[in-house]
């Protein structure tokens, strides 16, 4: 699979040009969705039976559920960030210690935000929201920071790693909507322009060091402290209270379905271990192997948005 991306932002005219071209020899259903085998009707029936027997279903989602909405993930074969580039995600410690790192991050995020924030839920998000509305889904835990479950109407939801649509002051803890910060960026950088090639999983793009040097980053309007997205960066840890809350929801559930996660990150994998301790049946829907395939009673390799709408939650 060969892909090219073009993204240009000119602040003075608030003008965007997005060019995405794709040549795909594997018939992938989307730009960032890895190749997968055709749907197996017998596997679909097995998942239907799993869902039908579940009375208190907990679902945990990962980046694989959002690739069909146009958000790349990190680990997917051929199309994930690690497969396409040698780029690495920002580290929590680097962000805290270094003003230049924060400047680079926010410049990239500023350019990528209009596209990232405009992305919409796909049929998999809508299916899970419908399951909740009909009383089938007991709780939803997402490792994603894209707010697509919220956009789809999910309410019984824990955003394990936070949400890119909120911004946090590292000094006073004040939180503001990310869209409000975009306006402050624009006011501080009226003539700044950038051209980027490549899209990253968490709403930013790739820029050169020269491009970011003149980018101005606002401080907290309340105390003047540094601002950070209200998300868990790599190298950070999930709030212990949130971990305890999710662990209680797992213990209250009678089954667990993983959707679109390789479970390589321990912050999500720990809840699989909790489910195993409780002897809960575990089903996994993910293209490619996961860390917990040997613990699952059912494993399906299909695009989430193709399979979940086929399941009758009644």
TrEMBL record:
<comment type="similarity">
    <text>Belongs to the sirtuin family. Class II subfamily.</text>
</comment>
<feature type="binding site">
    <location>
        <position position="223"/>
    </location>
    <ligand>
        <name>Zn(2+)</name>
    </ligand>
</feature>
<feature type="binding site">
    <location>
        <position position="169"/>
    </location>
    <ligand>
        <name>Zn(2+)</name>
    </ligand>
</feature>
<dbReference type="GO" id="GO:0140803">
    <property type="term" value="F:NAD+-protein-cysteine ADP-ribosyltransferase activity"/>
</dbReference>
<feature type="binding site">
    <location>
        <begin position="260"/>
        <end position="262"/>
    </location>
    <ligand>
        <name>NAD(+)</name>
    </ligand>
</feature>
<keyword id="KW-0862">Zinc</keyword>
<comment type="function">
    <text>Acts as NAD-dependent protein lipoamidase, biotinylase, deacetylase and ADP-ribosyl transferase. Catalyzes more efficiently removal of lipoyl- and biotinyl- than acetyl-lysine modifications. Inhibits the pyruvate dehydrogenase complex (PDH) activity via the enzymatic hydrolysis of the lipoamide cofactor from the E2 component, DLAT, in a phosphorylation-independent manner. Catalyzes the transfer of ADP-ribosyl groups onto target proteins, including mitochondrial GLUD1, inhibiting GLUD1 enzyme activity.</text>
</comment>
<protein>
    <recommendedName>
        <fullName>NAD-dependent protein lipoamidase sirtuin-4, mitochondrial</fullName>
        <ecNumber>2.3.1.-</ecNumber>
        <ecNumber>2.4.2.-</ecNumber>
        <ecNumber>2.3.1.286</ecNumber>
    </recommendedName>
</protein>
<keyword id="KW-0809">Transit peptide</keyword>
<dbReference type="GO" id="GO:0070403">
    <property type="term" value="F:NAD+ binding"/>
</dbReference>
<dbReference type="InterPro" id="IPR029035">
    <property type="entry name" value="DHS-like_NAD/FAD-binding_dom"/>
</dbReference>
<keyword id="KW-0496">Mitochondrion</keyword>
<feature type="binding site">
    <location>
        <position position="304"/>
    </location>
    <ligand>
        <name>NAD(+)</name>
    </ligand>
</feature>
<dbReference type="InterPro" id="IPR026590">
    <property type="entry name" value="Ssirtuin_cat_dom"/>
</dbReference>
<dbReference type="Pfam" id="PF02146">
    <property type="entry name" value="SIR2"/>
</dbReference>
<feature type="binding site">
    <location>
        <begin position="143"/>
        <end position="146"/>
    </location>
    <ligand>
        <name>NAD(+)</name>
    </ligand>
</feature>
<feature type="active site" description="Proton acceptor">
    <location>
        <position position="161"/>
    </location>
</feature>
<dbReference type="GO" id="GO:0106419">
    <property type="term" value="F:NAD-dependent protein lipoamidase activity"/>
</dbReference>
<keyword id="KW-0808">Transferase</keyword>
<feature type="binding site">
    <location>
        <begin position="62"/>
        <end position="82"/>
    </location>
    <ligand>
        <name>NAD(+)</name>
    </ligand>
</feature>
<dbReference type="GO" id="GO:0008270">
    <property type="term" value="F:zinc ion binding"/>
</dbReference>
<dbReference type="InterPro" id="IPR003000">
    <property type="entry name" value="Sirtuin"/>
</dbReference>
<dbReference type="InterPro" id="IPR026591">
    <property type="entry name" value="Sirtuin_cat_small_dom_sf"/>
</dbReference>
<dbReference type="GO" id="GO:0106420">
    <property type="term" value="F:NAD-dependent protein biotinidase activity"/>
</dbReference>
<feature type="binding site">
    <location>
        <position position="220"/>
    </location>
    <ligand>
        <name>Zn(2+)</name>
    </ligand>
</feature>
<feature type="domain" description="Deacetylase sirtuin-type">
    <location>
        <begin position="37"/>
        <end position="314"/>
    </location>
</feature>
<comment type="subunit">
    <text>Interacts with GLUD1, IDE and SLC25A5. Interacts with DLAT and PDHX.</text>
</comment>
<feature type="binding site">
    <location>
        <begin position="286"/>
        <end position="288"/>
    </location>
    <ligand>
        <name>NAD(+)</name>
    </ligand>
</feature>
<dbReference type="GO" id="GO:0017136">
    <property type="term" value="F:histone deacetylase activity, NAD-dependent"/>
</dbReference>
<dbReference type="GO" id="GO:0005759">
    <property type="term" value="C:mitochondrial matrix"/>
</dbReference>
<dbReference type="InterPro" id="IPR050134">
    <property type="entry name" value="NAD-dep_sirtuin_deacylases"/>
</dbReference>
<feature type="binding site">
    <location>
        <position position="172"/>
    </location>
    <ligand>
        <name>Zn(2+)</name>
    </ligand>
</feature>
<keyword id="KW-0520">NAD</keyword>
<dbReference type="GO" id="GO:0003950">
    <property type="term" value="F:NAD+ poly-ADP-ribosyltransferase activity"/>
</dbReference>
<keyword id="KW-0479">Metal-binding</keyword>
<dbReference type="InterPro" id="IPR026587">
    <property type="entry name" value="Sirtuin_class_II"/>
</dbReference>
């Amino acid at each position: 699979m060969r892909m090219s991306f073009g993204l240009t932002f000119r602040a003075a005219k608030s003008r965007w040009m997005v060019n995405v071209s794709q040549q795909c020899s594997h018939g992938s259903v989307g730009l960032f969705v890895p190749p997968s085998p055709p749907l197996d009707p017998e596997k679909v029936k097995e998942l239907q039976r799993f869902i039908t027997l579940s009375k208190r279903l907990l679902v945990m989602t990962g980046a694989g559920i959002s690739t069909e909405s146009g958000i790349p993930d990190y680990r997917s074969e051929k199309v994930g960030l690690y497969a396409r580039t040698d780029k690495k995600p920002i580290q929590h410690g680097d962000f805290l210690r270094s003003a230049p790192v924060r400047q680079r991050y926010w410049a990239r995020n500023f350019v990528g935000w209009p596209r990232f924030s405009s992305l919409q839920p796909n049929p998999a998000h809508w299916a899970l929201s419908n399951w909740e509305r009909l009383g089938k889904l007991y709780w939803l835990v997402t490792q994603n920071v894209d707010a697509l479950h919220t956009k789809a109407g999910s309410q019984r939801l824990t955003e394990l790693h936070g949400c890119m649509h909120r911004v946090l002051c590292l000094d006073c803890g004040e939180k503001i909507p990310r869209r409000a910060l975009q306006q402050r960026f624009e006011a501080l950088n009226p003539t700044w322009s950038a051209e980027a090639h490549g899209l990253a999983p968490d709403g930013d793009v790739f820029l050169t060091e020269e491009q970011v040097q003149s980018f101005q980053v606002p401080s907290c309007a309340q105390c003047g402290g540094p601002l950070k997205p209200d998300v868990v960066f790599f190298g950070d840890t999930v709030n212990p209270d949130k971990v305890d809350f999710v662990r209680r929801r797992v213990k209250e559930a009678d089954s667990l379905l993983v959707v679109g996660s390789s479970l390589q990150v321990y912050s999500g994998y720990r809840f699989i271990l909790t489910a195993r301790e409780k002897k809960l049946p575990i089903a996994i829907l993910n293209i490619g192997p996961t860390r917990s395939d040997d613990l699952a009673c059912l494993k399906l390799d299909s695009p989430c948005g193709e399979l979940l709408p086929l399941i009758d939650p009644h």
